[in-house]
Amino acid sequence: MARRVALVTGGNGGIGTEICRQLSAAGYQVVTTCMDPEREGIREWQQALQEEGVDVSWVQCNVSDFAACQTMAEVVESRHGPVDVLVNVAGITRDAFLHKLEKTSWDAVINVNLTSVYNVTRQFVDGMRSRGFGRIVNISSVNGQTGQFGQTNYSAAKAGMHGFTMALAKEGARKGVTANSISPGYIATSMTAAIPEEVREQIVSQVPAGRMGRPEDIARVVTFLAADDAEYINGANIPVNGALFTSF
Ligand code: CAA
């Protein structure tokens, strides 16, 4: 069988890069989207991975733009073949208390973190259904489960991803297409490095594990959910948060 193709949106970010590494190590042909190749230094990123023996292709796409996603899907499938695994990772924060939150920051976070999941998944789900195989993994957040100071926009988008995931899981269940979400806690990446230091320290002091998580902690769950034999795990949310938020 040809190698399965995995598309990772925002695969060159902190969590995304590790997802690309682990999917590649698991034998997938991995493609990432990136929004601005020059500004993000995507060629250098690709080269650095290649030196580690990790082969990842990239395609330019603004995932908040539906038409751009249509074009991206055509490019990816013509170069690599049908996408079997889609990991929606692309996300941003624009933190501010609601009484200070600008409309532009609301729109940006909803568009990049939530509408993008529709924009991208919509391109591939039809093909997955007709081939009888698909794995969709949405990277949400503990803050979509609990809410967080300064994150009405982000918490709303991340909670929205759960609703999307559960509905899509039901739609794909008889077609071999699963949809699951992962809710990372505070993972050491540039996104959490941007939190004011005192606030970050205070948050980390509340994590029972006593430390932030690592991108590897998230990537191992992605490869688990992406596997061919993971079909009955569908519509689930897997928290990976060092016991910061526990529920059943
Ligand atoms: N817990 C408890 N109190 C908090 C708090 C928190 N997490 N965040 C803010 N506060 C309190 C502050 O202590 C402060 O209290 P006082 O008025 O008594 O001093 C009050 O709220 C106002 O805070 P600031 O002075 O910092 O106000 P600000 O307007 O300058 O900034 C903020 C507010 C944007 C929320 C800022 O505090 C902040 O960036 N907090 C971090 C938010 C956060 O956790 N973001 C997560 C980003 S990473 C991510 O999202 C990845 C993921 O999925 C987990």
Automatic annotation (TrEMBL):
Pfam families: adh_short. GO terms for biological process: monocarboxylic acid metabolic process; poly-hydroxybutyrate biosynthetic process. This is Acetoacetyl-CoA reductase. CDD domains: BKR_SDR_c. Keywords: Oxidoreductase. InterPro entries: Acetoacetyl-CoA_reductase (IPR011283), KR_dom (IPR057326), NAD(P)-bd_dom_sf (IPR036291), Sc_DH/Rdtase_CS (IPR020904), SDR (IPR050259), SDR_fam (IPR002347). It comes from Natronocella acetinitrilica. Coiled coil: none annotated. The keyword NAD does not apply.
